[in-house]
Amino acid sequence: MKIAVFGASGGTGREVVSQALEAGHEVTIFVRDPNVSGVALERVRIVVGDTLHDDAKVAEAVRGQDAVVSALGRRASFKSEDLIRLSLQSIVSAMERNGVRRLVLVSAFGVGDSRRDAPLIPRLLHRMLLTNIFADKKAAEDDLRRSSVDWTVVYPVLLTDGPRTRRYRVGERLELSGVPKIARADVADFVVAQLASRDYVRKVAVISE
User: Fold this and answer.
1) Are the CB atoms for 154 and 114 separated by under 8 Å?
2) Alpha-carbon distance 77 to 130, whole Å?
3) CATH of the domain at 168
C-alpha cells in the first residue's frame, strides 16, 4: 500500500513509519523539518510543510495514497492551539477531494467517551493537565465522524518506549485499572495492521497491555 504519515517525527509516528516500511508499504512522511531523526529517510518520500498553513502541501502528501495515518500531537505542551482539529480538517478535506478513504488517527485514551472507563489516577491527571489537549482532540474526532472517510480512532493508554511485543488488548471498551500502559511500538503494530483491515472502520479502538 501507499501510506502518508502525518506526525512522523514523533515517537509513535517514527514507529509507524518503521513498521510500515518493514511490512513492505510505500511511505510518504509529512514533516515541518526534513531532517527527521530515527527515520530511514532514504526509504521514504518526504513532503515538507505545516498542516496548519499549507493545504497545498497536505494535498500533495495525500494525493495517490491508499491510506493516511495521523500521529500528530503537541508532545510536551499542555496547550493545544487547536492543532489536531485544524490539521485534521486540512487532511480530511484533501482526502475527500482526492478520493482517499482510509484514515487511522492516533488519539489518546481519555478523550471523548473513553473517559468513562479511565481509572482514578489517569482520570485525575487528564483533568489537571490535559483538559485543553483532550478538548482539541475531541473536536477533531467529532468533525471526523461527520466526514465521508473510513476512519479508525486509536486510543492508546499511557505510552512507553518499550519493545514491540504484539501482546496487547484491543477493544472499543476495555476494563482497566491502576495506570495502564502500552508501548508505542505495539500501538504502531496495531495501526499498521488496521490499514488493510475493516475490523475497526468507523469505530474507536482502545489499546493497552
Assistant:
1) no
2) 9
3) 3.40.50.720
Over residues 30-41, mean pLDDT: 90
Percentage of residues in the chain with pLDDT exceeding 70?
A: 98
Confidence band for 53, pLDDT divided at 50, 70 and 90: very high
Q: How many domains does the chain have?
A: 1
Q: What is the distance between the alpha carbons of residues 165 and 139, in angstroms, rounded to a whole number?
A: 32
Q: Phi and psi dihedrals of 151, rounded to 5?
A: -95, 155
Could you tell me if 102 and 66 are in contact, meaning their C-beta atoms sit under 8 angstroms apart? yes
CA–CA separation, 186 vs 182, rounded Å? 7
Say if residue 76's pLDDT is above 70. no
Do the beta carbons of residue 29 and residue 46 sit within 8 Å?
Answer: yes
From the number of C-beta atoms within 10 Å of its C-beta (0-12, 13-18, 19+), residue 158 rates as middle
Note down the domain range covering 81.
Answer: 2-208
